[in-house]
Write a structure and sequence with these properties.
- The protein is an alpha/beta fold and 322 residues long.
- It has one domain: Rossmann fold (3-Layer(aba) Sandwich).
- The strands form three sheets. The protein has a six-stranded mixed sheet, sandwiched between helices.
- Strand 4, helix 3 and strand 5 form a beta-alpha-beta unit.
- Bound molecules: iron/sulfur cluster and zinc ion (2 copies).
Length: 322
């Protein structure tokens, strides 16, 4: 198998793009394809300051590196969710959150950029496993907490947008789940750029939405990016993983299926948009952040705790010594 560009020995086959590439060509192709995706969806203006929401895993770590290499002002934030650090909660995955935070710190040093570390237990006195609601999977509380702090940290620290490492597999898996339940609320919001904007509501972008999980993993590996291999212990058995496996089977029989499904959805997404236009956002009476109801989902979840007020998140910033 030869590299499509330089005819040297290829190390990566990309069936979705009907080509194979050698290591140097792959390391050139990947950021340039991300740049094209950013342009296609008009995700960024050149001078916008980006806060990359990272988890210490391969996708978000690669995203931070690519955005910095492309010349963007990109810092990052990580939330120490307190997963795997508690005794007696039946969790495997020793110290998952603290280890992922260490990977993030290592990358901040390598890139010479600032990292914001938000410790959930310092903020609300509880970890994600302690926020579980009844029999519901802990991931629903976790997702809500992550979305809240991403927006709040970016707003308080003056960033223009939040970038997340969602890849094509993530997008298609979520889309598949939302179509199965015809969840038009989520369908109306899904996509490479968040449709909802407003005061205190920061733009969210997904520059890796056209890369498969395998393509991102390959880049992280070939580029020598430090990232945590272990998955969150709560990811085991998640329905989104089942959806991804099903879609991977379809993709292996007909390469390009994921991309066609996603692009088809993006073409028709306006079908789901109408109801979203009617949503009027107000400011949560408890924390002041945007909410469709008087009290936002985060404040309803954590109850009456003394959350950090505007500006105070600045204390969480760790400036790079590089
Ligand atoms: S798998 Fe669930 S609990 Fe773990 S980080 Fe992801 S959303 Fe949070
Ligand atoms: Zn090559
Ligand atoms: Zn609130």
């Amino acid at each position: 198998m030869k590299c499509k560009i330089c005819r040297q020995k290829a190390v990566a086959e990309l069936p979705q793009h009907r080509m194979a590439l050698c290591q140097p060509c792959y390391l050139d192709w990947f950021p340039s394809y991300a740049k094209k995706t950013i342009k296609k969806f008009a995700m960024l203006e050149p001078d916008e300051r980006i806060l990359v929401a990272i988890s210490g895993g391969k996708d978000s770590s690669a995203l931070w590196r690519v955005l910095v290499d492309l010349g963007y002002e990109a810092d990052a934030m990580i939330i120490d969710l307190g997963i795997g650090d508690q005794e007696g909660l039946g969790l495997e995955g020793e110290a998952y959150s603290s280890t992922s935070t260490e990977f993030a710190r290592e990358q901040a040093q390598l890139l010479g950029r600032d990292l914001w570390v938000i410790d959930l237990r310092e903020q609300i006195g509880r970890s994600v496993p302690e926020l579980r609601r009844g029999q519901r999977p802990v991931c629903s509380a976790c997702g809500l907490v992550k979305r809240y702090f991403m927006n709040r940290a970016a707003f308080e620290a003056g960033y223009d947008c939040v970038a997340t490492g969602h890849n094509l597999d993530d997008e298609v898996g979520a889309l598949f789940g939302n179509v199965l339940t015809w969840d038009t609320h989520y369908l109306s919001r899904q996509g490479p750029v968040s449709p909802l904007r407003g005061e205190r509501l920061i733009k969210k972008i997904k520059p890796f939405c056209y890369f498969t999980e395998r393509e991102t993993a390959m880049f992280s590996l070939l580029a020598g990016i430090p990232y945590m291999r272990e998955e969150c212990p709560n990811a085991v058995g998640a329905t989104t993983i089942t959806y991804k496996e099903l879609i991977n089977r379809l993709e292996s029989q007909a390469p390009g299926t994921k991309r066609r499904f996603y692009d088809g959805f993006l073409r028709e997404r306006d079908l789901f948009r109408k109801q979203e236009e009617d949503v009027v956002l107000q400011h949560c009476l408890s924390c002041g952040m945007p909410s469709p109801l008087e009290t936002c989902g985060f404040c309803r979840l954590v109850g009456d705790v003394s959350v950090t007020r505007f500006g105070a998140l600045g204390e969480s910033r760790e400036e790079s010594n590089a």
